[in-house]
Structures are given as C-alpha cells and as structure tokens.
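Dear support,

Our group has been running a series of protein-ligand predictions, and this particular one with manganese (II) ion is the one our PI (initials K.S.) wants archived with full inputs and outputs. We had some confusion internally about which version of the output was final, so please treat the block below as the authoritative record. The input we submitted was:
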Amino acid sequence: MVSLSGLEGSIVPYSFLGIQESYEDSSYVIVGVPYDATSSWMPGSRAGPLAIIEASRYMDPYDMELGCIPAEAGLHTIPELSVMESTPESMVSTVRGAVGRVIDDEKVPILLGGEHTLSLGAIQGVKDRIEVYVTLDAHADFYDEYEGRRISHATVSKRISELVGDVIIYGVRTLGWEEREELDSLDNVTLIPLLARDGEAMGALLRGIEGKNVYLSVDVDVLDPSALPCLGTPEPGGMSYRDVVMVLREVFRRANVVAMDFVEFSPCPGMRSDAYTVARLVYKSIGYHVLYSGKQNLRCSADE
Ligand SMILES: [Mn+2]
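Confirmed final output from the archive:
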C-alpha cells in the first residue's frame, strides 16, 4: 500500500464523510453496490453509491441533534463491489459474500445502492441473525415474478419473505393486483400503507420491531419526489425528509439494527442536493445507531 505519512492533513479520501478509519477499528463498513440491471423504468442507480459518497465528503461529521460525532465509532468504506455487468443471481451472491464477511467481523454493514435487488444478497448474508426485515418503500416489491425474472427490484420483498420470519413494508402507496394477492396469502408480511394515519402507521411498525434484531432497507423513493426527484421509480404522495428521519429514529430506538441499506437513488447530472439528502439519511442512521446501541463513550444524546 502507498504510504500517506505526512499527507494526512492535506487529503480527503474518497470514502463516506471523507473519513477512512482502518477496517479493524471501524464499527460501520460502507459497501457500494453499483447495480441497476433489472431496473424497469429508468436505470441510473448504478451511479448512486459514488454520488452519495461524493456528497458525504462535504458533510460535517458533528451531528447537531445528537451533540456528538457519530463517525468516531469508526467508519470504513470498502471499494465498490464489481457487479455492474453481473446477472442478478451473481450480484446477489457477491453481496451475500461481502455482507457475511462484515457481519462475521462483528461490524455493521451499510450498503449503498444500486437497485433494491441487492437487499436479497444482504439478507442472505445476515439471515440467521435477524428476525425482521423492515423496508421503507413506496412500492411493495412483492411480485412473484416480474418481466420474466424471479430476482428483480420488483420481486425483492417477496423473495425476502421466503427467507425471513417477519417482513414489514412501510410507506407503500402503489400496489399491483398480483402483489395484493401474494400479500393476502401470507401471514408473515405486514404492509403499512402511507395512507394510514400517521400515528397508526408508526404504531404498527413499532409493535412489529420492538426488541427485535432487524435488517433495515431504506428505498429512498419512500420520500416524496419533491424532496428527492432523482429516483428510478418515483411515486408522488411520499414522505418528507423530516418524517423519514423521525421514523428512522424510532426504528433505531426500538430495534437492534444489524445491517442496513439505502437503495434506488438514481442521481441526476448536475443536481447535488439529492445525493446530499441521501448521504444525510445514511449518516443520521449511523448517528441513531450509535446513540441507541450503547456506545456511551461518544456522548451522543437526544431529548426523549
Ligand atoms: Mn421502491
């Protein structure tokens, strides 16, 4: 490896937040998965991981709400996985290997997509350790098959429901008839439409995750397109940034999040606010994880 001694003060690494703690000393490992081969409407999320990392380099590591620097728990960004030209099956297997390794090393993997299909690989990498798969998503992704594929962004939650005890899909506001039938035939899947009144929707989510080991998948199209226009599959009537942050905070407070991903961001050339918004959601999640997972030495705190 090239020695950087003497240059530390004058370089900003191409890593999340521009911080690169050693792998060994890091609690959180960022893994970019630049894959969008099954995207049915607009490909482009392959550029997501790099855009999120780029934007994150301009973010202040101090979290004003928590009054601490969550990054002090140690962040390490590994190079992007080489999956751009892979079949969905082979991408899933690559992600499974990477996530399994990070989990075995007792760190929290944070995947940046890329399309939602990657969550299937991540789940396969952690599945023995989780009880509930929670996804925030405008879509149920619950087709049994889509465009002839069983592994696709539109079937991912269905595939995951075959592997994990409980699945909660939060924020849905569009659904196909076939998805409705699939969902009605299963009792381990809870669909929480965004149209449910806020309190009820949040209550249903929290009852399902209290004290559980959770995999959290944030499909960023749960946000309204006015808050985040650059999406593979935009759907109006979505959540505000602040609402999403509020839900994330409750998830991290109630559950033990073992691994997480942020998927379906498809950067628009020239627009910076989108990538920054996603980067901020990632770092807020790290902050809440630090706050609620007992890393008291960092002195993060929040008004309860
Ligand atoms: Mn979606």
